[in-house]
Write a structure and sequence with these properties.
It contains 20 helices and 26 strands. The chain has 721 residues and is of the alpha+beta class. It has a seven-stranded antiparallel beta sheet with strand order 1-9-8-7-6-5-4, with helices on one face. Strands 17, 19, 22, 24, 25 and 26 form a six-stranded antiparallel beta sheet that branches. It has a five-stranded mixed beta sheet with strand order 12-13-14-15-16. The protein is globular, with a radius of gyration of 31 Å. Pfam families: CRAL_TRIO (PF00650), CRAL_TRIO_N (PF03765), PRELI (PF04707).
Length: 721
């Protein structure tokens, strides 16, 4: 049983007045809002907040806390504290006795950023985490229209999966206590604010970075990874980028453009000013930086209306999913950190941040089954958010505008397992989200060691990639990424990774197969609705002894591609692929059907009426099979699954009607499978090959190999055990 209940959602107040603002109190899920006399800066709220630990006498249910982890950035601007907090259970005695606890433990993580003037708080329950999930998030930020005001956003959720049959009672109790805590919280925040005032603290100066000594600046010279904390320190030379420098109503300062935006024509500059002005007049919330607005204008070729529509949709999406807080709130699971084979690695020859993805070594299917699609999407979004942040850092470091990053994708190890259909669908969804919300952030995509299976994957995904983005792809097969015309044209030799023949040690995780023991249980997958979505992708089939399951696929022209993906749920089967010039008659089990059951009759002779184009593949129970076949001739292709017989008895021809009737009247065992197939039209496949060749001449070797293979048919089956 699963119940979901939103506990609270308090948006920023639109009616803030001078020296009056809303405050929010958060103590392990106990939050209240009140209107009281304000300070001139949000900083006292953070101080009052910290004074409530390790205990808070004003809230009796709060028994105490202890710090689990604490860290500060090198410049002292960011302070992160993670605490374990104990709360007394205020519930009927019977419920406490059944639960067997007198207090519960919450884990709370606070990120105080003095530079950005934000306080981000998140909390989740540790007690009964497998039965009840409580999540709370809160943020203090400076009001975008008046920096003397503080505003906040808060969200909380309660998800009761199961609780000894008392799910409804627990939900009502939680709502009641949460409401009571909200009312009680006003007195608590007043107490600590008054305590600060009595101690003489009513104003806290804004944080400023410590000056960088000359000898420290010299010690930072030389190559370093801009992803380190030191890279976020203000660099020498020009000061921090202003939000906007305007000399008059219709022009931007020339030095500002050259330093932070790059070359703009007068028309482009005018579009930027108009779009920013429109946002200032109509948008409620923080106005994006000029660099961010400019990306959307470039993505729509500076068509003002189209760029405005795209940007507004993206800003709405960011607010809905709290993307602005993602880097502070998202902590990838340990499993992702170990098996997600991607990470940042210095910069390219033009100063763009460099992201390396060893996709061929990454078990995308295992990751999706272990952490779920939503966690993977959130991780991809965090990478894009980090990329934008690194671009800003590199702009300051190198003294010129850098608005995009480079991605190096290593495809060594890519195989048919990566064509697992739910994984491909998830990839297409991620591409769509990134294209819509992070336009013009990819400066260059270097794909190396592309294998023969890559054209099939490219045919599936390339239609969903914007044409402007595809023009930034450079694809190499084999080892032709080495030497002139290869990576050395885009990366300094001292940053080329060691696994690609360079001298630089790369700390990107190597990936590898995710152990099945780490997969989410079916119950957990059902909870996220993931299992239902996957099942909708596949068709189910049963295979009896002597009664195979067959699917007829009509191919109108050669050089089309048939792909398949199936899981063996029970028993062992033999998979084969046949070609026939004649259309098989429907089997007696399913009159009129074109797929399912047995479609052939005993009169067919192997080598005369039909031919085998794929060698039989024995598939064991629990295995997942992916494969493809580039067709040579038009006609009917039959995908066949039949029950596996002991060695020596594997059928080498299609079973006859007698075998089917015998199987139907015998109580023999039954095999079960889920399958999916798809046909990539010849025109689409040839078109994708042409687009691959246009990406870079370095791909011609792979292109020729694939084309020649299709002349006599080729396939790439893979068994995932």
């Amino acid at each position: 049983m699963s119940r979901r209940s939103g506990l609270a959602s308090l948006p920023p107040s639109p009616s803030l007045k001078h020296q009056r603002h809303q405050l929010i109190l958060e103590i392990c899920g106990h939050r209240v809002c009140s209107e009281e006399e304000s300070f001139l800066h949000p900083a006292p709220h953070a101080w009052a907040y910290e004074k409530r630990f390790p205990t808070c006498p004003q809230i009796p249910v709060f028994l105490g806390s202890e710090v689990l982890r604490e860290s500060r950035s090198a410049d002292g601007a960011v302070h992160v504290v993670e605490r374990s907090c104990r709360l007394r259970v205020e519930a009927p005695r019977l419920l406490r006795k059944i639960a067997g606890v007198e207090h519960v433990v919450f884990v709370q993580r606070n990120v105080l950023n003095w530079r950005e003037r934000t306080l981000l708080i998140e909390a989740h329950n540790e007690t009964f985490a497998s039965r009840v999930v409580v999540n709370e998030n809160c943020s203090y930020t400076v009001h975008p229209e008046n920096e003397e005001w503080t505003c906040f956003e808060q969200s909380a959720s309660l998800d009761i999966r199961s609780f000894f049959g008392f799910e409804s009672a627990l939900e009502k109790l939680a709502m009641k206590q949460y409401t009571a805590n909200v009312k009680r919280g006003k007195e608590v925040i007043e107490h600590y604010l008054n305590e600060l005032i009595s101690q003489g603290t009513s104003h806290i100066p804004r944080w400023t970075p410590a000056p960088v000594r000359e000898e420290d600046a010299r010690s930072q010279a030389g190559p370093r990874d801009p992803g380190s904390l030191e890279a976020d320190r203000p660099c020498s030379g020009p000061g921090p980028a202003p939000e906007t420098v305007i000399t008059d109503g219709d022009k931007l300062d020339a030095d500002y453009i050259e330093r932070y935006l790059g070359r703009l024509t007068p028309v482009q500059e005018s579009c930027l000013i108009q779009l920013r002005r429109w946002l200032q007049e109509t948008h409620k919330g923080k106005i994006p930086k000029d660099e961010h607005i400019l990306r959307f204008l470039r993505a729509r070729d500076f068509h003002l209306d189209k760029a405005r529509e795209m940007l507004c949709q993206s800003l709405s999406w960011r607010k809905q999913h709290q993307v602005d807080l993602l880097l502070q709130t998202w902590r990838p699971p340990a499993l992702l950190e170990e098996f997600y084979a991607g990470g940042w690695h210095y910069q390219d020859i033009d100063g763009r941040p460099l992201y390396i993805l060893r996709l061929g070594h990454m078990d995308t299917k295992g990751l999706m089954k272990a952490v779920g699609e939503e966690a993977l999407l959130k991780h991809v979004l965090s990478v894009n958010e980090e990329g934008q942040k690194r671009c800003e850092g590199n702009t300051k470091q190198f003294g010129r505008p850098i608005s995009s990053w480079t991605c190096l994708v290593d495809l060594e190890g890519l195989n048919m397992r990566h064509l697992w259909r739910p994984g491909v669908k998830a990839l297409l969804r991620m591409i769509e989200v990134v294209e819509d919300n992070y336009p013009e952030t990819l400066g260059r995509l270097l794909i190396v060691r592309a294998p023969r299976v890559f054209p099939v994957l490219w045919t599936l995904i390339s239609p969903f990639i914007n044409e402007n983005t595809r023009q930034k792809f450079l694809i190499y097969s084999g080892s032709n990424y080495q030497g002139p015309g290869g990576l050395v044209d885009y990366l300094d030799r001292d940053v080329i990774p060691d696994f690609l023949g360079g001298d630089c040690v790369c700390n990107v995780p190597e990936g590898g197969l995710v152990p099945k023991s780490l997969y989410l249980t079916e119950e957990e997958q059902e909870h996220t609705d993931q299992l239902r979505q996957w099942r909708e992708t596949y068709q189910s089939a049963s295979v009896l002894r002597g009664a195979p399951h067959e699917v007829a696929v009509e191919i109108l022209e050669g050089e089309s591609v048939i792909t398949w993906d199936f899981d063996i749920l029970r028993g062992d089967v033999v998979f084969s692929l046949y070609h026939s010039k004649q259309v098989p008659k429907p089997g007696p089990q399913e009159p009129g059907a074109r797929a399912g059951g047995q479609l052939t009759d005993k009169g067919w002779v192997l080598g005369v009426d039909y031919s085998r184009v794929e060698a039989p593949l024995v598939c064991r129970e629990g295995e997942s099979i992916q494969g493809s076949h580039v067709t040579r001739w038009p006609g009917i292709y039959l995908l066949q699954w039949q029950m596996h017989s002991p060695p020596g008895n594997v059928a080498c021809s299609l079973p006859g009607v007698e075998d089917v009737l015998t199987a139907l009247h015998s109580p023999g065992p039954k095999c079960k499978l889920l399958y999916y197939y798809e046909v990539l039209a010849s025109e689409d496949f040839r078109g994708s090959m042409s687009s691959l060749e246009s990406c870079t001449s370095g791909f011609s070797q792979l292109s020729a190999t694939t084309s020649s293979s299709s002349g006599h048919s080729h396939s790439s089956p893979l068994v995932s055990r």
